[in-house]
TrEMBL record:
Compartments it resides in: Cell membrane
The keyword Nucleotide-binding is assigned to this record: yes
Main location: membrane
GO cellular component, one term: plasma membrane
Origin species: Trinickia dabaoshanensis
Sorted UniProt keywords: Amino-acid transport, ATP-binding, Cell inner membrane, Cell membrane, Membrane, Nucleotide-binding, Transport
Family classification: Belongs to the ABC transporter superfamily.
Topological relation to the membrane, as annotated: Peripheral membrane protein
Coiled coil regions, renumbered to chain: none
SUPFAM superfamilies: P-loop containing nucleoside triphosphate hydrolases
Protein name per UniProt: Amino acid ABC transporter ATP-binding protein
GO molecular function terms attached to this record: ABC-type amino acid transporter activity; ATP binding; ATP hydrolysis activity
Length: 257
């Protein structure tokens, strides 16, 4: 059952029905139904190996599902065995921002160049336009003073904030986060979550895989619990955290809280 969309009545940004994905004989996503409404923040939780990363990777075409329907940002990314063709897929990826656990900054480029590269190469921005927009985003994530720094000189929290600014520079319609704070020292987690909270309150549509239950409680509109390649339960954080109906949700929460 798809989780409830926000009461906006707008067309969903993400609409997924019956999504399946296997690696060899191993079924990793076993019929996922999932909706995200504009400006909604969906937090995905669940044990390691439950299929969370594979699910996010399907959403921007990094993995090809086997069956089901996946609509995102007004594109039919996947429909019963057929994937969007390569050119359209590249266009789609500019609308779907992705932030990984491991930052993935370009090590040989400065912070500013990391943030301006996409808009210059893929959006046809001039150097000056891209730099202005990038500086505004770096300001927003608190790193304008690091514009000329190289990634290696930054802390993990700073690297991840640059990665977020870089994704935002493409003006995505939805942001996907795959455990964005899991590689950080504990004292650096807060600064990244703070930036994500700001994005959420700005109205960004977000799907966030995280083990940060405090963030889920505070920011999520909907919490989705995955286990064994399926969504076992979904609902508002108050419900999921205080009165989960599924034994598998209770077991997971007991292990992490
Ligand atoms: P999660 O993010 O919830 O930890 P993943 O989506 O990374 O889960 O993985 C789900 C399952 O799929 C795991 O059993 C993992 O080993 C398997 N898997 C993921 N990617 C691949 C791949 N490229 N090839 C084979 N198996 C994979
Ligand atoms: Mg994962």
């Amino acid at each position: 059952m798809p989780q409830t969309a926000a009461a906006s009545g707008d067309a969903p940004i993400v609409r997924i029905r019956g999504l399946k994905k296997s690696f060899g004989t191993h079924t990793v996503l076993n019929g996922i139904d999932f909706d995200v409404a504009p400006s909604q923040v969906v937090v995905v939780i669940g044990p390691s190996g439950s299929g969370k990363s594979t699910f996010l990777r399907c959403c921007n075409g990094l993995e090809q599902p086997e069956s089901g329907i996946l609509d995102i940002c007004g594109h039919r990314l996947f429909d019963q065995g057929r994937m969007l063709e390569e050119r359209a897929l590249n266009a789609l990826r500019t609308e779907v921002g992705m932030v990984f656990q491991s930052f993935n900054l370009f090590p040989h480029l400065s912070v500013l160049e990391n943030v301006t590269l996409g808009p210059r190469k893929l959006r046809g921005a001039t150097k000056a336009q891209a730099a202005d927009a990038a500086m505004a985003l770096l300001e927003k994530v608190g790193l304008a003073h690091k514009a000329q720094a190289m990634p290696a000189s930054l802390s993990g929290g700073q690297k991840q904030r640059v990665a977020i600014a870089r994704a935002l520079a493409m003006r995505p319609r939805v942001m996907l986060f795959d455990e964005p704070t899991s590689a950080l020292d504990p004292e650096l987690v807060g600064e990244v979550l703070q930036v994500m909270k700001m994005l959420a309150s700005d109205g960004m549509t977000m799907v966030v895989v995280t083990h940060e239950m405090g963030f889920a409680k505070e920011v999520a509109d909907v919490v989705v619990v995955m286990d064994g390649g399926a969504i076992v339960e979904a609902g508002p954080p108050q419900t999921i955290f205080s009165t989960p109906t599924q034994a598998r949700t209770r077991a997971f929460l007991q292990a992490v809280l």
